[in-house]
From TrEMBL:
Its main location: membrane. It is a multi-pass membrane protein. One of its GO terms (molecular function) is heme binding. Residues 70-84 have a biased composition (Gly residues). This is Cytochrome c biogenesis protein CcsA. Residues 69-91 are annotated as: Disordered.
Amino acid sequence: MGNTNIDQNLAGFSDSAFIAAVTIYLLALAVSLLYYSQAHLASEKRRERAKVLSEVKANAAQREKVTVGAGAGSDAGSGVGGRGVSDDDARGVSAAGAVDESSLPETLRADAILKRVNRADKLGGVTQALVWLAVAVHAVQVILRGLAAGRFPWGNLFEYVTVVTLFAMVISAAVIQRKSMRVMWPWLLTPVVALLFYAGTNLYAETAPVVPSLQSGWFPIHVSTVSIGGGIGLLSGMASIMYLVRRAQPKGKEKGILGAIASPLPDAAKLDALAYRTAVWALPIFGLGVVFGAIWADAAWGRFWGWDPKETVSLITWMIYAVYLHARATPGWRGNKAAWINVIAFATMVFNLFFINMVVSGLHSYAGLN
């Protein structure tokens, strides 16, 4: 039930924690972008090195053919097609086929590339640490908000966005532990920072008791379940977006601006697996949230379902996730087709979060915006 006594001190601390959390998330985003650029440069240098090594070894092999031909009485100054191969063409390749690192440009030497990779890894570690710090401050903000109001802290759209993004970041930080997956942070932090910034500047509401219609035991059960499902859906949807980018720019064949953006990303298979595994959890959890909402609706309004705009779009979102999982397991639909369905599910969830709450009037219009 709602508490009419608001602790203004705790409310103020909660607001300060919100600002601090957003600031740390922004810092983490900045470091992650620097990390991403370093990972891109390291990837490019590895590609250049591989190309140079391939050319050097090819020239060495051609030189060996010419030498053999000369020993058999052939013209040592001509190779295939009559093109001569000088000693410089095979420079840096030993008799055993090993490449002399000193013969390569300094930026393409193994130790230089390793240093660049280590530098990028350190930035990735800093990003991970900043994310966990931001998550901790974010959690404190949500908890203080609830303590200040004496209720569960998701009674309006501002609070709901902070809770959904908190769950999304906790789940993402727990999932993204491997160094190879940390390049995903710019893709995940960008929507979270955007959501929190928009919530703080356009959706902010003073700490207050919940409206009478939300004073029910089903309030924390329904909203928390939907929030967890939404947080998982955010991670799954962004993984599918990254997967589509990676599929458009296969590893090692990146071209143009999109290729530069895609080059640090993990393999498409890893991104597809992440999108699928998280959606497997999002579907039942989000579905339970819809069911709990229906039970609450029956207790509050005397019917389980009334085709209210928000509950209708929530059902549609859940159905799209179900279609995605089915498509993902169906030959002919795996890959890009299934990924696009997951992206549509994610977009529908965001549409439900903002447009339905802010523009369309209905029984869920408790955000004070419509």
